[in-house]
Amino acid sequence: MPILERFLRGPGLREVRALGLAVSGGGDSMALLHLAAEAGIAARAVTVDHGLRPEAAAEALEVGRVCARLGVPHDILRWEGWDGRGNLMDQARRARLRLVSEWARGADLDAVALGHTRDDVAETFLMRLARGAGVDGLAAMRAERRAEGMLWLRPLLGIGREELREELRRRGVAWFEDPSNENRAFDRVRVRQAMQGLAGLGLGPERLAEVAGHLAEVRAALDAQLHEAARTLVRVDRGDVLMAPGVLDLPDEILRRLLRGAVQWVASAEYGPRGPALARLMRDLRQGKGRTLHGCRLVWRRDGLRIGREWQAVRDLTAPVEALWDGRWRLQGPPQEDISDQPLEVRALGADGLDRCPGWRATNMPRASLLASPGVWRGPDLLAAPLAARPNGWVALTDPLRNGDFLSRLSH
C-alpha cells in the first residue's frame, strides 16, 4: 500500500478542520510535512528551537523555507529554559509539549500531528521493558491522546523510519540529522544501536512494534472495564472525586487504574502515583484506613471514598485571577475596580480563610476539602470563596481541557 494512503488512514486526519504539524527538520517530521501537503490537509507547521545546538536556528529557518515552497504556514518557537541541571531530554520534551500546545490553541487548530514511527514504538517498548514496565508502559504509543489541552495524533505509527527516508529520497527532499541521535549517553540511542543485533533473532522493529500492538489491545480492554467502573461507581463533587464503597469489589487492576486516574486528576499531575505507592494505598483502603498520597487526601465517609486536594500541597500556590490555579481551577467573577496597588489573586482558603465563611457547613463539603479550595484574595482580604458559601458573584470551575481524559469516563 502506498505510504500516502497508509498515512491518511492515521487517526483523526480526515476529521480535523485545521491540523498542526510538529516539524523538527528530521527525516520523520519532514516526511510528515510532505505527506500532509500532498494530501491537501489544511495545516500549519511549527518548529521548536531548544537553543541547545548552534545549528538549530538555521535548521528551523530552512524548515520554514521548505514550508513556504509547499504553501504551509510555519512558525518558530524558542525554548530557553535549560539551566544545565536535571534530565535534558525529559525537560526538552515537556517544554516542547507545552509550547506547541499553547501555539496550537492560539492558532485555533483542532489537533497536532507528530512524526513518531513504528521504530519509535519498538524502541520505547525495549526501553520500558528494561525498566520492568507493566501493560501500559509496554503497550504501543497511543495513536491519539489528549494532553495540555490539545489533541495529539501520530499518523505514522504503522510506517518504518527507513521507509519514510526512502520516500524522501525519492522526492529529492533533504533532512537534518540531530547529532544527539549518536550520543550513547541517552538510553534511546543505546537501545537503537542494540536493536541492530536483535534483528537477527527475529526481534526487529516490525516484530517488536507488533508485540506492543498486542499489548495495546489488552490496554484497550482494561480501559473499557475502567470506563464502566467509573461510569457506575464514581462521580465528581465540586472538585473532589467520590467513589462508592463497591469500588473495593473491583479487580485489583481496575481499582488501581481508577485510583491512579482520580488522584492524578485531583492533583492535576502529569503522572499518577507509581505502582508500589498504589499497592500500599489499596491495602490501607481495604482495611478501612484513609491516607494522603500525591498531594491528595483519601478518606472513607458515609457515602464512600472521598478524594480531595491536600491543603499542604496548595498552601503556597498563588495565581492571578485570570490564570489557571492548581492546574485545574478557573475563577470567574464580576469586573473589579482597580482601587488598590494589590492585585487580585487566587489562593487556597486555609483555616484563616474558612473562618471568614460562616456558612461553609451548609455546603456539605468536608472541612479538609474546603481548606484546599480556591479563594479570591486581595492581599490579606478574602473577597470570595465560591465553594465555601461565600461566592460574592464568583464561581469556581474545573478546567475541562486539561482534565478531560478522566472526566470523560464519568456519566455525571
From TrEMBL:
User: What highest taxon heads this organism's lineage?
Assistant: Bacteria
Arranged from A to Z, the UniProt key words for this protein are: ATP-binding, Cytoplasm, Ligase, Nucleotide-binding, tRNA processing
Full protein name: tRNA(Ile)-lysidine synthase
The answer, when asked if Hydrolase is one of the entry's keywords, is no
Q: Which InterPro entries match?
A: Rossmann-like_a/b/a_fold, TilS/TtcA_N, tRNA_Ile_lys_synt, tRNA_Ile_lys_synt_N
Q: Which organism's genome codes for this protein? A: Cereibacter azotoformans
Enzyme Commission designation: 6.3.4.19
GO BP, one example? tRNA modification
Give one Pfam family, short name only: ATP_bind_3
User: May I have one GO cellular component term?
Assistant: cytoplasm
- Summary of the function given for this chain in its UniProt record: Ligates lysine onto the cytidine present at position 34 of the AUA codon-specific tRNA(Ile) that contains the anticodon CAU, in an ATP-dependent manner. Cytidine is converted to lysidine, thus changing the amino acid specificity of the tRNA from methionine to isoleucine.
